[in-house]
Model the fold of this input.
Amino acid sequence: MTAPWQVLCLSPLGEDLVRGLFAHLDGAVEVTFPRTRDRAGLHAALSGGAEVVIGDFTGRLTMDAAAVAAAPRLAFVQIPAVGIDGIDVAGLAAGGVPLANAAGANARGVAEWAVGAAFALCRDLVWSDRAVRAGGWPQLDLLARGPREIHTQRVGIAGFGAVGAEAARLFAALGCAVSYWTRRPRPEAPATYRELDDLLATSDILVLALPLNDETRGLIGPDRLALLPANALLVNVARGGIAPDAAVLAALESGRLAGAALDVFEDEPPAADHPLRSHENVLLSPHVAGTTVQAQLAIVSVVRDNVVAAVEGRDVQNVVNGVDPHVRRR
Done:
């Protein structure tokens, strides 16, 4: 009789919920969890025979080089998210271990957050809320801040994967002139392609929807932020390292940026005394742009379907490290 596949779940999900996803496999899968949510617990769980790993969407227990080395029987890694930063992608590829993400599962949720955040910035909703809660009634002060209607804004989207494409569609539906930049232009895109520097120079609202990697880290730094039109707005639903916190803060303080909506930061969470936390023109969010009920259900479905496919000998989907999608036991 074939031994059950050892599936290790690193995400802080309910154990009954995770086991329930694979209950129909009739003993073909044995689901385990780290005893402790720290590096020692991670490595102990991996060395205990883990074959399939469901990653940690919080980023606390990452499959870095040391973790990959601690798992001699590792055959497949499924990340219950889109981003794969912090994971030893090259190491997994070298070992022939497919790495899959949940591409597209939360695209609508993230795109809606980007549009909602742009609305909030255009109309100073967060600033107004704080002022009224503090006892004020700043009608004239708000007018002096220059509230704007979103359909008059030129929107530039850096990155045109599932999130960028959906955001472009939603902004265009509101009447915005939408442009985009990506390393591989999309002839079918319902938006105007521009080179990156031109995109920044013509964007009243800049939306970042790029993955974080060696090529994009620091991509939108001080020099590029200086290309933006005066009083531009920044919406970051990508990763904090793409537009470094210090560069964003400097652009806000200089007035180049009139406001920023940040769902992501270089270090998460940022320090309690981080100056972005107290800046009146910043909308802050704890990396939850894709956290909707619908998106979470979609991600769970992707995870379940891919793990079941691996166990049943079918190709897994959304492999991002170039490895054969057919999972093989060690």
About this structure: The mean pLDDT is 95. Residues 5-103+293-311 form a domain with the Rossmann fold fold (CATH 3.40.50.720). The CA atoms of residues 128 and 142 lie 7 Å apart. DSSP finds 13 helices and twelve strands in the chain.
